[in-house]
Amino acid sequence: MIDYSKVLPDNLPAPVDDGAADHLVGLAMPKLTLSATAGRKVNLADLGSGRTVIYLYPLTGVPGTDLPDGWDAIPGARGCSTEACDFRDHFMVLGDAGVENVFGMSSQDTYYQHEVVDRLGLPFPMLSDPTFALADALTLPTFAAPG
Question: Which of 10, 52, 112, 126 suits a disulfide with 104, CB 3.0-4.6 Å?
């Protein structure tokens, strides 16, 4: 059986590191409280001194629903489910390496994010940042897409 959450089109453009996130090394997380799919609020500044992985992704697609026009032409935009599955599949390895928290994060609301947590069987919560507060606080690179 094919795991379609790990299948990506062959013709996707490769992302290029433009250095837009180089300033993040060594920065403290801002005092920012976000809703999590686990039904709690998470203050990023209170995560503690242990290792935390927060991966940001632009959009969770839903099976049977078309992606926005041109989505596959945006370098790095496609593959969020694959990325989530990789973190899921390596969750225990990350814990063994000292990671205390793993979170996925997008601008979608927690209700929407519950679908992907359930569908992919993710052992970690997703964080919702619909106002791009973390992007603003840390001057993160973003992009706009139609739809």
Answer: 126
Residue 109 domain-assigned (yes or no): yes
Let me know if residue 7 belongs to a domain: no
41-55, 63-77, 83-97, range with the lowest pLDDT: 63-77
Percent of the chain residues topping a pLDDT of 70 = 86
Any domain includes 29: no
- Number of H helices and E strands in the chain, helices first, is 4, 5
Q: Residue 64's CB: how many other CB atoms inside 10 A? A: 5
Burial class, 106, CB count within 10 angstroms (exposed 0-12 / middle 13-18 / buried 19+):
buried
9, 93, 109: which is closest to 53 by C-alpha? 93
CATH number at residue 124: 3.40.30.10
Q: Among residues 109, 87, 100, which one has the least CA distance to residue 34?
A: 109
